[in-house]
């Protein structure tokens, strides 16, 4: 930080003030005393002074403090026949003293009192206000130079949006991959801004607003950076939370100021990130209201499509909670388009990996197709982080290029956490090995279950062992048989413990598995209509009373239906549990051999796992 003389003065003000009062309180009185010449080597009573005067020993008297103190110069036998200065306290009324001194021809000198106290009081009363006023002036001037307005104290209502006449984000549309549909929408807007005659010739109007909706990490903000870099028009960017302050009316004032600046620079683009911070549905009623936020939203609605309109201003907003936005904000005329930015599919992941692999040294043997197939459910941000973690691991191992081993380790680290210390206790290691082999063999022998990718006893995160499954393709629709197969695969670990060690030795290792099992079975009954209750949707996925929704009843069904739901969930889980136990019993010999191999190697690859099982039984053809 550059230290200017103004900053130096601002930092020095408190020290100057404190130092001044310390000097005034402690050193000024001492200085006054040292400047006075009323010091003496000894003291004498007034009576003794009169005796010295009568004996003619007093030669000179200096009177101080308005006649209350005197310093005499005396000489006599008692004083060693040397002139000595002696201090004497004089009484309040001694009119005969002066006459007596004159009678004895004593040199008299009176010293008036210096009124230094009044002087220092005046200085003290003036210097502090002057320093305070000077400091405030510098503070205001500093805030003016940084904010461009009349100081921070006077600029609460000013917009905090970052303004760029020609945005240089370093991102263009070629850097955006995996979300081709959303990119096409923005490319059209850029064309509208650059060549509006193509559209106006057929009566088309420029969209007033585009809302980007999608999970975190899918590239919503990246798209905004791309349109800023491509459009070559003024660009305003701000976060939704920057509108809302503790002061009433500040948010609405900032919205007005933002759109005023935007209209002055039209055509232009306003990007509002995380608009759900200010655009939340109004009048929820539960959890307390936030009138300031609602007034900010009202002003935003008016500016986007009110009486005056906002011709030439395109508002681009991003959120991952479109379900909580106010309906008035989402209507055409405000946000004409809602662009979904979803988790990329296989082709999208491959395109994203190609973009992020440009500046990475990846070994020629590594295929990005394999990485794309192994990462279903990964967002663009996850894939970027994956390659970065792999590069960090490569540098840590002092390798020259990223290999598939670093990719695999990076995937495991992102999904499950950091690698822990391998188990040493043989009993715990054997129990965990049976648990993980139970998951793997049930998933392998079921036709509708995903393939096993690998089984490992190396702890990661909170898990002491892991079994990885990789789907053969992206699945948007899941059948009843596939859900049941997943339930059985999740129960495989508990079933192996029961068969091998008995009910008394069953551990808590399946707690997370049982939560998943119960959740899948409940969704089959209450959401997917896959039970004897019938094709009914009995529970909503998103019902949040704090958003003003789902406030009527906790359950949308009767107690009788609730009992049937519990019975159906129990029957589904029990049916799957019995089938899982049969698979474990029928393949006990294979399980024992696989456990011995897993304990020895600690990790078994999915392909090797299937080859071993195929020697003892026929593997089902996966769908």
What does this structure look like?
- With 623 residues, this protein is an alpha/beta fold.
- It folds into 5 domains: 5-33 and 117-154; 37-113, Signal recognition particle alu RNA binding heterodimer, srp9/1 (2-Layer Sandwich), CATH 3.30.720; 162-340, Rossmann fold, CATH 3.40.50; 346-416, Helicase, Ruva Protein, domain 3 (Orthogonal Bundle); 426-614, Methane Monooxygenase Hydroxylase, Chain G, domain 1, CATH 1.20.58.
- Helix content is 49%, strand content 11%.
- The protein contains 20 helices and 14 strands.
- The chain has a 6-stranded mixed β-sheet with strand order 6-8-9-10-7-11. A 5-stranded mixed β-sheet has the order 1-4-3-2-5.
- The longest helix is centred in the N-terminal third of the chain and has 32 residues, at 116-147.
In short:
By secondary structure, this protein is an alpha/beta fold. The chain folds into 5 domains: 5-33 and 117-154; 37-113, Signal recognition particle alu RNA binding heterodimer, srp9/1, CATH 3.30.720.210; 162-340, P-loop containing nucleotide triphosphate hydrolases (Rossmann fold, 3-Layer(aba) Sandwich), CATH 3.40.50.300; 346-416, Helicase, Ruva Protein, domain 3; 426-614, Up-down Bundle (Methane Monooxygenase Hydroxylase, Chain G, domain 1).
Name the CATH homologous superfamily of the largest domain. Answer: Peptidase M41
Write the CATH fold name of the largest domain.
Methane Monooxygenase Hydroxylase, Chain G, domain 1
- Strand arrangement across the biggest beta sheet: 6-8-9-10-7-11
| Share in β-strands | 5-15%
- Radius of gyration (CA) equals 43 Å
- What does the largest sheet look like? 6 strands, mixed
Shape: elongated
Estimated helix fraction: 40-55%
Count of DSSP H/I helices:
20
Secondary-structure-derived class: alpha/beta
Keywords: ATP-binding, Cell cycle, Cell division, Chloroplast, Hydrolase, Membrane, Metal-binding, Metalloprotease, Nucleotide-binding, Plastid, Protease, Thylakoid, Transmembrane, Transmembrane helix, Zinc
Subunit structure: Homohexamer.
EC number: 3.4.24.-
Function: Acts as a processive, ATP-dependent zinc metallopeptidase.
């Amino acid at each position: 930080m550059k230290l200017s003389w103004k900053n130096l003065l601002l930092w020095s003000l408190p020290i100057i003030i404190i130092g001044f009062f310390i000097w005034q309180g402690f050193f000024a009185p001492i200085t006054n005393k040292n400047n006075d010449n009323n010091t003496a080597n000894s003291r004498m009573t007034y009576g003794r002074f009169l005796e010295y005067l009568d004996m003619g020993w007093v030669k000179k008297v200096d009177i101080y403090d308005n006649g209350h103190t005197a310093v005499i110069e005396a000489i006599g036998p008692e004083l060693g026949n040397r002139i000595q200065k002696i201090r004497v306290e004089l009484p309040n009324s001694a009119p005969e003293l002066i006459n007596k001194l004159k009678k004895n021809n004593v040199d008299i000198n009176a010293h008036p009192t210096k009124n230094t106290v009044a002087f220092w009081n005046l200085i003290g009363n003036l210097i502090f206000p002057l320093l305070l006023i000077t400091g405030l002036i510098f503070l205001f001037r500093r805030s003016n130079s940084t904010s461009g307005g009349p100081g921070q104290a006077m600029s609460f209502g000013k917009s905090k949006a970052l303004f760029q006449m020609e945005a240089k984000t370093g991102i263009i549309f070629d850097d955006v991959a995996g979300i081709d549909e959303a990119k096409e929408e923005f490319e059209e807007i850029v064309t509208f801004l650059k060549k509006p005659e193509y559209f106006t010739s057929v009566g088309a109007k420029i969209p007033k607003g585009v809302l980007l909706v999608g999970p975190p990490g899918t590239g919503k903000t990246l798209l905004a950076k791309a349109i800023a870099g491509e459009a070559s028009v003024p660009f305003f960017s701000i976060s939704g939370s920057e509108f809302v302050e503790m002061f009433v009316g500040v948010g609405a004032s900032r919205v007005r100021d933002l759109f005023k600046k935007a209209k002055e620079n039209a055509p232009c683009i306003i990007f509002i990130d995380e608009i759900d911070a200010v655009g939340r549905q109004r009048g929820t009623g539960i959890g307390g209201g936030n009138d300031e936020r609602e007034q900010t939203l009202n002003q935003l609605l008016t500016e986007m499509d009110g009486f005056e309109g906002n011709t030439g201003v395109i508002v681009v907003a991003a959120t991952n909670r479109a379900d909580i936005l106010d309906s008035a904000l989402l209507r055409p005329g405000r946000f004409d388009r809602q662009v979904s930015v979803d988790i990329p599919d296989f082709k999208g992941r491959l395109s994203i990996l190609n973009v992020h692999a440009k500046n990475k040294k990846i070994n020629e043997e590594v295929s990005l197709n394999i990485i794309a197939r192994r990462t279903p459910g990964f967002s663009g941000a996850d894939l970027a982080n994956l390659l970065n973690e792999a590069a960090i691991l490569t540098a840590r191992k002092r390798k020259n290029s990223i290999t598939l081993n670093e990719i695999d380790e990076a995937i495991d680290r992102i999904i499950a956490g950091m690698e822990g210390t391998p188990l040493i206790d043989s009993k715990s290691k054997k129990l965990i090995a049976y648990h993980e082999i139970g998951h793997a063999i049930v998933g392998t022998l079921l036709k509708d279950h995903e393939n096993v990718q690998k089984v490992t006893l190396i702890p990661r995160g909170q898990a002491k062992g892991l079994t990885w499954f990789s789907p053969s393709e992206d699945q948007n629709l899941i059948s009843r048989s596939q859900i049941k197969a997943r339930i059985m695969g999740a129960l495989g670990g508990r079933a192996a413990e029961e068969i091998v060690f008995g009910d008394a030795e069953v551990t808590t290792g399946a707690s997370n598995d049982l939560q998943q099992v119960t959740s899948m079975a409940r969704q089959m009954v209450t959401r997917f209509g896959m039970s004897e209750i019938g094709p009914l949707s009995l529970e909503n996925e998103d019902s949040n009373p704090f958003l003003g929704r789902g406030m009527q009843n906790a359950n949308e069904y009767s107690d009788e239906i609730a009992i049937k739901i519990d019975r159906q969930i129990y029957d589904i889980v029990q049916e799957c549990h019995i089938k899982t136990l049969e698979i474990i019993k029928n393949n006990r010999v294979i399980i024992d051999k696989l456990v011995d191999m897993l304990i020895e190697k600690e990790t078994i690859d999915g392909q090797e796992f299937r080859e071993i099982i195929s020697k003892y039984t026929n593997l089902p053809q996966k769908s």
